[in-house]
């Protein structure tokens, strides 16, 4: 087949679809599309993906229409990762599926919402936690399409699922990524904490590093529009190494990775470029993510998520009362809960899943319907 012939010309380190560990539920192969192309289609046509356009990246409810949303970030990751993968002759179909699916389980209100949701869940059930990479896998495996009667979520391939759950590097000092090729499909089902391992494929490693490249400069652009920080405020030593704007920063880092990773079974960023990116990320943390404007926003998010969680928990334990209520928020939750209650999901888990799937605007409207009577 043409697909097999095309993949035979890829780098020896690229992952070939014929070597896939497959799906949780077996399916016949498509004559036209590779398994990873099919995964991409399932992801971009899912409701979870569509909702990303109304979820925060960093700045919530911006008055400026050019502030980045979560779906724009995903598109940037896809573009950067695909650029690197094409230069390294890797499997672009796999890279695109991981890139486009990596945030499908992200909470509303960005990482502020993620932290608030994690705290709320633990208040009701100490065994629960919320991390967006784990939730993205949960959406792919379990939540997506359930309202339409699908039992297997999106039923993605192992390599895409692994890339999604392993995309979030917790350290900024990560300059070299070597794929963990010993992972097995059974392991992903056993994760009860964030998967602190590198992806199983080189393509997954590309997405993991592209994720940082996509936001390190773009967040500064948004901070400038919000009046928090300009590129000119970044220390000259960092700008001289990476570039004077987002475009130059991306070009510097992508070129560096391609140069140092070509014909290798690793994704490598030079120490000089890696240290410069790490310093820039720290600047973002201290001057953007910890700015007074973001702190005020984070408090508002915490208040909204906590109030929503408490109200929804009170209604889910008394579904009869909730259904008799005139409040549509409670009725919609009970409809959602009905799908999962019989499968042994706890009330706190159901409420967490429900809020995690909300957009910023829907969560805000639910809050207003409950409390602004």
Strand and helix map with partners:
Elements: H1 2-8, H2 35-44, H3 47-50, H4 70-88, H5 92-101, H6 110-124, H7 132-143, H8 158-165, E1 176-177, H9 185-188, H10 202-216, H11 218-225, H12 236-242, H13 246-261, E2 267-268, H14 271-289, H15 292-316, H16 319-324, H17 328-341, H18 347-356, H19 360-371
Antiparallel strand pairs: 1-2
Describe this structure in words.
With 373 residues, the protein is mainly α. It has 2 domains: 35-293, Hypothetical protein af1432, CATH 1.10.3210; 295-371, no CATH class. The chain contains 19 helices and 2 strands. It has helices at residues 2-8, 35-44, 47-50, 70-88, 92-101, 110-124, 132-143, 158-165, 185-188, 202-216, 218-225, 236-242, 246-261, 271-289, 292-316, 319-324, 328-341, 347-356, 360-371, and strands at residues 176-177, 267-268. The chain has a two-stranded antiparallel ribbon with strand order 1-2. The longest helix has 25 residues, at 292-316. The radius of gyration is 21 Å and the shape is globular.
Looking at this protein, list some descriptive labels.
373 residues, mainly alpha, two-stranded antiparallel ribbon, Hypothetical protein af1432, 2 domains, 19 helices
């Amino acid at each position: 087949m043409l697909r097999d012939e095309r993949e035979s010309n890829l780098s020896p380190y690229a992952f070939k679809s014929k070597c896939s560990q497959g799906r949780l539920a077996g399916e016949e192969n498509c004559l036209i599309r590779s398994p990873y192309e099919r995964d991409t289609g399932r992801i971009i046509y899912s409701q979870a993906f569509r909702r990303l356009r109304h979820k925060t990246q960093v700045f919530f409810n911006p008055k400026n229409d050019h502030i980045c949303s979560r779906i724009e970030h995903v598109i940037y990751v896809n573009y950067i990762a695909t650029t690197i993968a094409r230069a390294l002759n890797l499997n672009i179909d796999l890279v695109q599926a991981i890139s486009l699916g990596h945030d499908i389980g992200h909470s509303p209100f960005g990482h502020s919402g993620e932290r608030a949701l994690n705290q709320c869940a633990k208040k009701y059930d100490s065994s629960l936690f919320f991390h967006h990479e784990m939730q993205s896998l949960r959406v792919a495996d379990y939540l997506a399409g359930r309202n339409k009667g699908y039992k297997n979520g999106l039923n993605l391939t192992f390599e895409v699922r692994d890339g999604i759950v392993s995309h979030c590097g917790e350290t900024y000092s990560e300059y070299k990524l070597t794929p963990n090729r010993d992972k097995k499909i059974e392991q992903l089902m056993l994760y009860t904490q964030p998967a602190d391992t590198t992806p199983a494929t080189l393509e997954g490693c590309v997405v993991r590093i592209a994720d940082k490249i996509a936001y390190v400069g773009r967040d500064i652009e948004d901070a400038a529009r919000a009046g928090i920080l300009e590129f000119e405020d970044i220390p000259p030593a960092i700008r001289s190494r990476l570039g004077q704007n987002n475009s130059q920063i991306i070009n510097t880092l992508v070129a560096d990775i391609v140069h140092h990773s070509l014909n290798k079974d690793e994704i490598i960023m030079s120490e000089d470029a890696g240290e410069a990116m790490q310093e820039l990320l720290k600047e973002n943390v201290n001057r953007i993510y910890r700015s007074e404007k973001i702190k005020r926003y984070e408090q508002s998010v915490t208040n909204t998520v906590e109030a929503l969680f408490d109200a929804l928990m009170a209604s889910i334990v008394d579904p009869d009362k909730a259904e008799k209520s005139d409040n549509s928020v409670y009725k919609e939750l009970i409809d959602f809960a009905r799908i999962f209650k019989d499968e042994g999901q706890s009330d706190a888990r159901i409420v967490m899943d429900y809020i995690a799937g909300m957009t910023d605007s829907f969560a805000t409207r639910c809050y207003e319907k409950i409390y602004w009577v």
